[in-house]
Every structure is written in C-alpha cells, then in structure tokens.
C-alpha cells in the first residue's frame, strides 16, 4: 500500500505541477504518511518532481511568455541563484522547526493563489478594461528572487506562488504563465536538489518511483491543461491546498 500511495502521489503531483502547481503538497504528504521525516520528505519530493517539471516545460515551450520586459537570461539567473540560496537555508533548518512551519507555508501559499486573480483585477483600467502594467523590471526581479528563494527552501506550492506572481506582474495567459513557471521551477529545483543531495537530505527508497510517475504525470497534465477549464483547475488546487494544510496541522 505504501508503494501504491507513493506511485499515485508522483502521478498526481506531476500532473498538478504541469497544469498550475501544488503537486509538492501531495508528494510531501504521501512521504510523511509512509514514515519519512518532513525535512527529508520535502527534499525527496522536490528531487522526484524535477523530471516532471522538465517534461511539462518542454510541452509548454511554445507558449512561454516573459513578464515585466525581463529576458530569458535574467530569469534563469534569478531562478538559479534563488534556488541555491533557498536550499542552503533549508540545510541550516532543524527538523522540528521545519515540521512546525510546513502547515503555515501550505496555508499561505493557498491563500496567495486565491488572492492572485482578485489582486490582478485591481490592476485593470475600468475605463478601457486593459491591463495597467506599472511593475518596473527591478521590482519584478526582487519579487521573483524572493519567490525562487522560497522554492529552493520549501518547493511546496511553488507553482501556485509563481503563477500568482506572474499575474501580479501583468501576465494573463495561463498557458504562457505555465510554460515559464515550469522552466523556472526546473532550473531552481535542479540546483536545490544538488545541494539537498550534498546535505544528505534525499531518501533514495521512494525516489525512483516518484520520479518516473512524475514524468508521466507531468506530460499528461500538460496535455490535459488544454482541455480543462481554468476555474475548475483553480478550484481543485485550492481544495488540495486547504486539505493538505489541515492534514499537517492535525498531525
């Protein structure tokens, strides 16, 4: 049953990450449920979902759009530096402290995803109904750097926060936002996983199965994203976020 649960978590995690984010909630919860300590479960789930990020980023490669006049090189550097710093912070965090803040991180991430569309509407011009993009490149770089540091540290709900951030930076096309989200997630996760491995935070027992299922889920999820309504996706992710948060609070 443990292996079946891990396989399903990898598949669903890869699918969720491909279409909007939140897959790490499922892998983290599943690994903790089968007895892996939260700190190691977070690092292991992050490593396992990396191939899924790569698969879905490739699937969305033609739709990628860049916010606030930033170019690909700048965004890649931000993702790599943020992932490196966030992972380094995780290595210095105790197991108990991490376990205590996990439910709060999940809850805040879910609330950010809910608030994203509402905050985005506040930036519309009521007269012309056109988007007012007032975010300067430097401001966008600072915001994205903080998000990438978070991703290197926790990774849970990273896709949700990235989508909300892209929306606040003026992007509206979910497919294009998904493409960039998966690209940045893959970059910062790659460097974070290397640091996790050096710090001996990755549990090898379930890693391969999670990774294989995440690849399948990542590609399937990217394909399904074109056929599922955005409102339905958002509602499901919010439900998952609240459920995981409650689960960890109870635990």
Automatic annotation (TrEMBL):
It holds the Pfam family TauE. It is found in: Cell membrane. The chain crosses the membrane at residues 28-50, 70-89, 101-120, 141-168, 180-199, 206-226, 232-250. It is a multi-pass membrane protein. The keyword Transmembrane applies. Keywords: Cell membrane, Membrane, Transmembrane, Transmembrane helix, Transport. The keyword Iron does not apply. It comes from the Bacteria. Belongs to the 4-toluene sulfonate uptake permease (TSUP) (TC 2.A.102) family. This is Probable membrane transporter protein. The lineage of its organism: Bacteria, Pseudomonadati, Pseudomonadota, Gammaproteobacteria, Alteromonadales.
